[in-house]
Design brief:
Layout lengths: L4 H24 L4 E2 L8 H12 L4 H12 L1 H8 L4 E5 L6 H8 L5 E6 L5 H11 L4 E2 L2 E2 L18 E5 L9 H14 L4 E7 L4 H8 L5 H17 L8 E8 L4 E8 L3 E5 L2 E5 L4 E8 L3 H10 L3 E7 L5 E7 L1
Helix pairs in contact: 2-9
The structure holds N,N-dimethyl-L-histidine (AVI).
């Protein structure tokens, strides 16, 4: 028969996954093997990340929430009334509630996420809780140039919201490129951004090597995901989680370390691993208040205010565009 349903299904399945397959293949072909951390976040990985945020060792989430809560009046004073909020990489839309609760008559909220799966449901819950707010989710890759809905008449500032130190998962070049894009998009308004700070390496080490092993499971899920989606044959117990602070580069690095000499097959191609060889899965850059502000200036912003917790673990920046 001309129509081969199996081939069709396979093609359908393959289409949205081709990015992962292509990038994994390219990443495994380099001398230092690597894969982008964006592939952590399938359904299982997103659940593991939510658990990370609750861990006693993982201070960033609760510290940022504390700053956003305690400094809300000052933040609201910078933003002013009738603001339009644009969130880059909106997940479950929880942190923005802290902001919305503090603002006077916010007009519009545009959460942008690459995955539309949970976005619409989360938007609907927000509409219920904020009936006067126009919630307009956008499914898009915010690291690419994009066009926002045009500004409403009489609206206040357009404010970007980028919490969670997601900027730290970009390379320095990517971080600068993103900030330049954001600055252009937010001209006349500003960016409210949370970034993790340089600190005692022991605290950083603990945050990425938690006692319950949730971060290890999060890291190893990448191999399970590849097995599920790309039919690779990684043996998950053939690799271990490693995370350490690279002090000269001011970043946590996460790797998956091969426990023995072994080979993995992807798309009929064989990749041999030596014992101890690693796949570099994530960088999480840490900033100082000054280094972040300098980067922001380079991207075209005017740093206007910064809030931190008493222990200076985390920082929230108000950058005028
Ligand atoms: C999402 N991102 C800011 C987290 C971080 O800390 O870099 C991801 C993460 N990786 C391990 N634990 C958490």
């Amino acid at each position: 028969h001309a129509f081969n349903v199996h081939a069709f299904r396979a093609a359908q399945r393959a289409a949205p996954l081709s990015d992962f397959a292509r990038e994994l293949n390219a990443g495994l072909s380099q001398p230092q093997r690597s894969i982008s951390p964006k592939f952590f976040y399938d359904a299982a990985g997103s659940q593991l990340f939510d658990r990370i945020c609750e861990l006693p060792e993982y201070y960033p989430t609760r510290t940022e929430v504390r700053i956003l809560t305690e400094c809300a009046p000052e933040i609201a004073a910078q933003i002013g009334r009738d603001a339009e909020i644009v969130e880059f990489g909106a997940g479950s839309l929880t942190k923005v509630r802290l902001l919305l609760d503090a603002l006077e008559s916010p007009r519009r909220y545009v959460p942008i996420d690459i995955s539309g799966e949970h976005l619409e449901a989360a938007a609907e819950r927000l509409r219920t809780d904020y009936p006067r707010l126009a919630v307009q989710p956008m499914v898009a890759d915010y690291t690419m140039p994009l066009v926002l809905p045009s500004r409403e008449k009489g609206a206040g500032q357009r404010v970007g919201f980028f919490p969670g130190s997601t900027l730290g998962n970009f390379s320095p070049e990517e971080a600068l490129a993103f900030l330049q894009l954001a600055c252009r998009l937010l001209r006349g308004g500003g960016l409210l951004m949370g970034v993790d700070l340089v600190k005692d390496p022991a605290l950083l080490h603990a945050a990425y090597n938690d006692a319950q092993g949730v971060t290890a499971a999060f890291n190893l899920n990448l191999l399970r995901r590849a097995n599920r989606e790309l039919a690779t044959d990684f043996e998950p117990d053939g690799f271990t989680h490693a995370a350490f602070y690279n002090a000269p580069l001011q970043r946590i690095e996460m790797h998956l370390v091969s426990r023995r000499a072994q080979a993995v097959t992807l798309d009929g191609q064989r990749f041999a691993f030596d014992e101890g060889e690693t796949i570099h899965t994530e960088n999480s850059y840490k900033f100082t208040v000054d280094s972040l502000r300098a980067l922001a200036v380079e991207a075209g912003f005017r740093p206007a205010a910064v809030w931190t917790d008493p222990d200076r673990l985390f920082s929230v920046h108000w950058l005028q565009a």
